[in-house]
Amino acid sequence: MNLAAGLASAARRWPTSPAIARGTRVVHDYATFARRVAALADSMRSAGLARGDRVALVSRNSGDYLEALYACWWAGLCAVPVNAKLHPAELGFVLGDAGVRVAFVDDAWASALGGVQRDLQLIGLGGADYRRWLDGGAPGEADAAARDTPAWLFYTSGTTGRPKGVVLSHGNLAAMTEAFVANVETIAPGDAILHPAPLSHGSGLYAIPHVAHGAVQVVPESGGFDAAETAMLMAHWPRALFFAAPTMVKRLVRDGDPASRDLARFKCLVFGGGPMYVADLREAFAALGPRLAQIYGQGESPMTITAMRREEVADAIARSDDARLASVGRAQSGIALRIGTAMSESAAGEPGEILVQGATVMQGYWNNPAATQATLAGGWLHTGDVGTLDAEGYLTLLDRSKDLVISGGSNIYPREVEEVLQAHPAVAEVAVVGRAHPEWGEEVVACLVLREGADESTVTRECDALCLARIARFKRPKAYVLTDALPKNNAGKIVKTEVRAMVAARARGDAKKSEAGR
């Protein structure tokens, strides 16, 4: 069941096929990739790491990152891929909570952690110690991991408090691999997966099915996302696929100009990890054509709850079916979905919390039995997301349950209002939140980032008219806050708690100005 067996098998079946590339250049074939991973794993064991120990990876994307990730599994260790954009204090919490003793890091983090984490052994990816571990290890067989053996310790973004460590087993990630091929996209030897998105998150998870099926892992020269570079790689590599957050898709369309390139060989862009508004999806489709697929998942059920294949997206575009485009697809293979509670299911179309069962659902939270029990109560994963299921099984996300606005006793889902506002051509980004109101409890406030050159008063008037034309009057924003940027976490998601704090601070400031003017 060890995920590293997928690499060992690929090396036997396609030893000379390209495995790792940097930009447009192949770096290693599969035989070399597997040999280096096995040697690195042996050095990990020789360094005193025992089965089940946690090893952190804190780095921008690189081929060495993928080697270290697979070496962890080959050696029977649990990988802790951490967002390289964290603040050192945030990273310190993760390393301490996970009990990490060895971390593979890039140059920036080697400098940042060198004098702080004295009990932590740092191995610079591509550096002298890393090369010694590669050269000094004796390649051997991969560890015989069981299905429930922890493989990946994923720390949530922690937008409402301390992040929790999601324990994902080899069995969880094997089930994710099977679901990807069955529900999202097929993979053939010689295909390519691009990694402009962080390997510590969705892109690294999607490396697993692509390694198992003999695809080449393409790491951009920049080590991250650059719109022009990504568009170039999309055109260069045959049958390429990559994962991107909606914010990346918008930047790719805006700055990468992919429509100007020959994308005949490009296969698929899979998006997820945040809301993709219908207007943005239509714009992306115009630039990329029938190559867009959508997934919905959580760290607690990695990349695997629902999916909408590229053929389904193209069909909805052709039929101008905005309701289908606003959905996140249907349950993936082996996944049971429920709207409601663990004890009762809501009627079709009725909003409620999204509950999930399946082989991809986490083992629990690391050293946090109370949170585990609450989140997995009744045998279901309680996602904290609110949505509806239609009669055909398509899931539409409304919002996080904590972001629901209740005004005058009526439930208002910010996502519904945001969809309308995002349709205005001058609106670059939007976040809708609730603000305390003495009579109604809460009122709806829309925070807007406008495109360059937009007239503020005109846009707010037109946005108000859009809302009155498309949604119930009680849902329309009672105030608009214009800002240069919306607060986001390190994964690029808008942090609604900070948006609400910003709105409240603006309100207090306006009240003080009003008092001073009396």
Question: Could you list some keywords that capture this structure?
Answer:
single chain; 518 residues; alpha/beta; 9-stranded mixed β-sheet; 4-stranded parallel β-sheet
What would you say this structure looks like, in words?
The protein has 518 residues and is of the alpha/beta class. Helix content is 36%, strand content 25%. The protein contains 17 helices and 25 strands. A nine-stranded mixed β-sheet has the order 2-1-10-9-11-12-13-14-15, sandwiched between helices. The chain is globular, with a radius of gyration of 23 Å.
- How far is the first residue's CA from the last residue's CA? 73 Å
User: Total helix count?
Assistant: 17
Write down the Rg: 23 Å
Low-confidence spans: none
Beta strand count: 25
Strand order of the largest sheet: 2-1-10-9-11-12-13-14-15
Shape: globular
Beta-strand residue percentage: 25-35%
Share of helix, binned: 25-40%
How would you classify the quaternary structure? single chain
Major β-sheet profile: 9 strands, mixed
What is the average per-residue confidence, as pLDDT, rounded to a whole number? 92
